[in-house]
Design a protein that fits this description.
The chain is mainly α. The protein contains twelve helices and no strands. The protein has two domains: 102 residues, no CATH class; 110 residues, no CATH class. The termini are far apart.
Length: 291
């Protein structure tokens, strides 16, 4: 059995070397791309070349665009396609490394199938875990936006009611929230502000903001602003207040869900603690009975 594992190991290593040779100089910039959770950029060029030749976006369009949509929400849509390919290359790199380690383990254990089987199973499970983690990040980002949007909208209502224009109210609110610049909502709002200050119309900047967030509540906010901001006055404030009430109800629902999730996570530690207390209290009693 040893020749089989040595041949498989040689095939994996030589295949990666051939792909690296074909991709050399073509994907050099991928090592400079920064994306949360990506750690194997230096191994990405061969896998990027493989993805290009396989034409993954054409053969598996639903899978590719689902990943791309999640990546764009995390990294933005400017280079969303490139980051999607980098994420897929990361998945393939992990699978390749696990297969290599599995083959090496089988070779070192005198042809035992356990190593390659474990490597193959992990080569499938780890990419699935990466996709699941990506979707969890998207859900967490949307939740953070939903929790912060009502407070931001309240500040806009107060400033517009005091006589400010919408642009001035947004700019002032962002200046007051500099410590939250890394928050997903304020990061997108700052991008929107940079766009309208660099020549985009306010409507174009707002539509881009809504598209990048990809959340129904944000779309409702931008629609209400674009439909009413030219009118100004009490009508605009009333429209925003109606929206604010619905957003606060949505925030209450999200907070309630988070509370229920937190309480459910405490059940197992509480049961474990109860068992420990029972053992500590009951052990002396059983010892006395034995005596």
């Amino acid at each position: 059995m040893l020749p089989i594992w040595s041949s498989l190991l040689f095939l994996l290593l030589s295949g990666w070397g051939w792909l690296f040779y074909r991709a050399s100089g073509k994907y050099g910039g991928c090592s400079e791309m920064a994306m949360a959770g990506i750690r194997l950029q230096r191994l990405a060029p061969p896998m990027l070349y493989l993805l290009e030749k396989l034409k993954i976006s054409q053969r598996l369009p639903f899978f590719f665009f689902r990943i791309q949509r999640s990546v764009q929400k995390i990294c933005g849509d400017r280079r969303g396609g490139e980051y999607t390919l980098l994420f897929l290359a990361e998945m393939l790199s992990y699978s390749w490394l696990l297969l290599v380690l599995g083959s090496l383990l089988s070779l070192l254990t005198n042809g035992d199938f356990g190593g390659i089987v474990m490597g193959a199973v992990l080569a499938v499970l780890l990419p699935a875990a990466l996709i699941s983690d990506l979707h969890r990040k998207v859900v967490r980002r949307e939740r953070e936006v939903l929790l912060e949007l009502p407070e931001f909208l309240n500040r806009i209502i107060l400033l517009v009611g005091a006589g400010s224009t919408v642009q001035q109210a947004i700019k002032h609110s962002l200046e007051r929230a500099k410590e939250k610049a890394e928050h997903p909502l304020y990061r997108e709002l700052l991008q929107m502000q940079r766009e309208w200050e660099s020549g985009y119309s306010f409507q174009q900047a707002m539509e881009g903001f809504s598209k990048r967030c990809g959340i129904q509540e944000v779309s409702a906010f931008t629609t209400a602003v674009l439909l009413n901001f030219r009118r100004g006055g009490n009508d605009f404030v009333l429209a925003l207040r109606d929206l604010s009430r619905s957003l606060w109800e949505r925030r209450k629902a999200v907070s309630k869900t988070l509370g229920e999730q937190a309480s459910s996570k405490l059940v197992f530690p509480m049961v474990l603690l109860f068992l420990v207390v029972v053992i500590l209290v009951g052990a002396p009693a059983f010892m006395i009975m034995d005596l």
